[in-house]
Amino acid sequence: MRRLFDRLARAVRGSLARKLLLAAATVQLVILAALLVNTGRVFDAHIDEHSRQRARELDPVLEASLAPGLFRRDFEGTQDLLAQLQRESAGAIEYLVVYDDRDRIFASAGTVPFAAPGPDGIRLTGSHRTLELTRVLRMGPDPVGKLRYGLSLASIDDARRGVLRQAAVIAALAVLANLAVLALIARWLTRDLGRLVSRTHAVAAGDYDVVVGVDGDDEIGRLARDFEVMSVAVRARTEQLQERERQILALNSELERRVASRTAELVAANRELESFVSSVSHDLRSPLRGIDGLLKLLDEREGERLGEGGRDLLRRVRAGAQRMGAIIADLLTLARVSRTEIRHDVVDLTALATSIAAALDESDSGRVVQWRFAPGLAATGDAGLLRLLLENLLENAWKYTRRTARAVIEFEEFARRDGQVEFLVRDNGAGFDMAHADLLFKPFKRLHAVHEFEGIGVGLATVQRIVERHGGSVRAQAEVGKGASFWFWLPAIEGRR
Amino acid sequence: MKSDVILLVEDNPDDVELTIDAFRKNRILNPVVVARDGAEALDYLFGTGLHAQSGPQPLPAVVILDLNLPKVSGLDVLARIRGDDRTRLLPTVVLTTSVEEGDVIDSYKLGANAYVQKPVAFEDFIVAAGRLGLFWLLVNVPPPAPST
User: Fold this and answer.
1) CA distance A110 to A103
2) B97–A332: do the CB atoms touch at under 8 Å?
3) Which of A261, A277, A311, A421 has the largest CB neighbor count within 10 A?
4) ipTM for the complex?
C-alpha cells in the first residue's frame, strides 16, 4: 500500500496533467462510491418493506390454516400442511416450524436453522439472506402455540447484486470517460504550458526573440502574452545593462591606461629624482672633501703664519664642511630608504638592538646606560632598514640621555592587532616639549640647539619613512626632562598573531 | 715586469693632492703615477697613445681607481683591466665618492679587489687611504708577474 502510494507520488511529481487526473479520478470515485452505497441502502429499505408486506399477506392465511390442527394435536395433518405450504410457495418460504404452547417443536418443514423462536429479523443462511418471522397461533382469543417461518430473500439478493453490478460498471465507465475527457483537456492545457516552459528556458538562455504562440483569452493565453511582454522588457533591460557594462569597461580601460601612463611618468620622475639626488650628493661631496682636506693642508703647512685666530677660523670652516658632509650622507640615507625595494625577512629585533647598544657602549666607554630589551622581539621586514630604524631610535635615546644621571633605555612590545605589532622605545632623557611634536618627524627640524645635542634632524624623518614603508605608523610622547617614548607598528611574523 | 708604482686614476686634482698627502702621512713612499682619466690609465697600462713611443710601462703594484671619470669611465677601465691577460690579476681598488649600491655591485662583478668610499672629513680620508695603501702594498701578497 505504501509502495503503491510512493509510486503514485513519483508518477505525479513534475506533471501538472497527472496531478489533475489523479485529483479528478479520486473525487469522482468518492462520489460514485457514495452513490452506490446509497443505492444499496435505498434498495434494501425498499426490499425490507416489500417482504414485510408479503408477510402481512401470508400471516392470516398461515394462522387460519395451522391453528386448528395444533389445537387438535393433529401432528400428521399439520406436518402435511406445512410441507404443502412450503412446496406451494415455490421456494419463497424456506422453512416453517410450529411450536406448542410450551414452545416445544410440534411440526416443521424445510431446513430449519437451530434457534428458539425470537423476534422478527433478517438472518444470513448460506449464500443468501432470510427474513425470519414468528407469529402466535390462536384459536379464538386463546394462544395455542407459535409459528416460526423463514421467507427467502435469495431472488431479491440476486436482483440487488445485479443492480449494484450494473451501477458499478456504469460508474467505472463514467470514470473512464471522464478521465479520457480530462486527459484531453489536461493535454491541451499543458501543451500550451509546456510551450511556455520551453520559451522560458529560451529566454533564460538569452534568446529574447521568443513568440510563445499560445492564443486564447484564458489564463494561459494571458500568461503567454504577459510573458512575451516581459521578455521584451527583459531584453531591453539586458541590453541596457550590457551597454552600461561596455561603458564601464571602456571607462575602466581608459582609467587603467591613464593610471599606467601616470605611473610610468611617476616612475620616470622618481628615477630622475634619484639620479639627481645621487649625482648632486656625489658632486657635492667631492668639492666638500677638497675644501676640508685642503684647509687641513693649509693649516698644516701655513698654520704658523695664520696665527691662532686664523687657525680657529679654518677649524670652523672645516667643521661646517664636515657637517655639510654629514647632512648629505643623511639625505642619501633618507633617499635610499624611500626607494629601496622592501624585503620581507623575519628580523630578530632584540638581537639587532643588543648589537646596536653594544656598539654605542663601545663608542663612549665613559657612559653607563642601562639597556632593557624585552626578549624575543621580532617582526617581518627589511633587515637593513629595520637596523637603520633601531639605530636611529636607540642613538637618539643614547644622545638625549647624555645628561641623565641613571640613563635607562627600554625596548619592548606594546600592542598587537591585525597581524601587526606595536613596539615601544623609551628613555628617561631630556625629552621635548609636546607643543612642537608636529615638527618631530619633519626632515631638518630640530627641537634642540646643536650645542646642546648634536645632529641634523634627519634621523626621525628616516624612522618615519622606514615605518611607513613597512605599512605602519609612528608616534611619540615626551615631557621635558622626563624622557621620550616612540611607538611604531611593524608587520608581525606570519603565523604569530 | 713589475714595479712598486701606485697608479692613481683620478680626475680631481684636489683628491690627487689629498690622496698623495694621505699616503705620505702613512709613510707610503711608493712612486705615484697619476692618470687624469680612464683613457690615460689604459694608455699607461697597455702602452698605447701617449705611451706608444716608450712601450708598455712596468705594471704598477696596485691601481687605485675612481669611478666617475671623463672619457672612459672607471667601470670600463676595470673591465678592460680584467679582460686582458697581462693585467687580469693586477690588484685594483675602487676609491670613489659614490655610495650607490649599484656601483658597488658592478665594481665587484667586474672583479674589483676592494671598494673604498672616500669620506668627506680629511682625517677620515687619511685613515682610509692609509689603510688602503698599507694593505695592498705591504700586507697583500701580489700575484706572480707574468712570465712574458
Assistant:
1) 19
2) no
3) A421
4) 0.71
